[in-house]
Amino acid sequence: MLVITRKVGESFYIGDDIEVVVLECNKDKAKIGINAPKSVNILRKELKVTVEQNRQAANKNNASNLKDLAAFLKK
Amino acid sequence: MKIETRDFGTVEIEKTDIIDFTQSIFGFEAYKKFVIINDISIGTDIMWLQSLENKNVCFVVVNPFAVTENYNPVITKEQLKKVEANSEDSLSFAVIAVVPKDIKNTTVNLKSPIIINNKNKKALQVILDQDYPIKYRINKGE
User: Fold this and answer.
1) Nearest to B58 among A44, A50, A58 (CB)
2) Which of B5, B8, B24, B26 to mutate to probe the A interface, most A CBs <10 Å?
3) Among A61, B70, B109, B134, which is most exposed with the fewest C-beta within 10 angstroms?
4) Count of CB atoms within 10 A of residue A24's CB?
5) Dist CA B46 CA B37 (whole Å)
6) What tens digit of pLDDT does each residue of A26-43 get?
7) Predicted structure pTM score
């Protein structure tokens, strides 16, 4: 992974037209600003992974097996 | 009213059972109306969340509190507002399960529960600020 150190207020570019700005920074949170064309889709990772999980979840499972699933739940 | 389901054929439901997603399940933007179906032989902690608009859109969802003892989801005011709830007391929680062929490897998404307002059946999938796993394996045996 490429690692870049930036101060608050500084930025960097990805390609010619995506600018990423560090707006605020404290112990465990960074506030990031992104200037990008509207066509660029920006998703928080947890949302992207949730969408992937939701799609996978909607695939037809073997419903008859769900009795076995119930056995894994706490009694 | 009668509805077509993916796993149970034609099922009779009440209009009051219909769950209305005020914001769609992520990745399923076309679908707003769902109903929860139980299989009595399996119990009520595992449920089917069946779309009314497309019978092939169906999720297996699980009561998260039956999966882990340490689950204390914090719902924001904005999220409560979207289901027109005054407090978390009127909410039910369900988490979506990914059930693979080898059922031992089933995971649930504790980071992104579905909240349902019991009073008006309005629902929403939220992403919690808390660090809960998106792929939580429910079988802790192996």
Assistant:
1) A58
2) B26
3) B70
4) 11
5) 9
6) 999 999 999 999 999 999
7) 0.89
Q: Which amino acid is at A75?
A: K
pLDDT value of position A39: 94
CA distance B112 to chain A (A): 7
Paired strand residues for B124? B23, B115
- Compute the distance between CA of residue A12 and CA of residue A32 in angstroms, rounded to an integer: 11
Can you tell me the distance from the alpha carbon of A7 to that of B50, in angstroms, rounded to the nearest whole number? 49
Question: Which member of A51, A53, A66 has the closest CB to residue B46?
Answer: A66
pLDDT tens per residue, range B72-82? 999 999 999 99
ipTM comes to: 0.92
**Which residue on chain B is closest to A43 by alpha carbon?**
B26
Alpha carbons B3 and B35: distance in angstroms, whole number: 10
- Does the beta carbon of B129 lie under 8 angstroms from any beta carbon of chain A? no
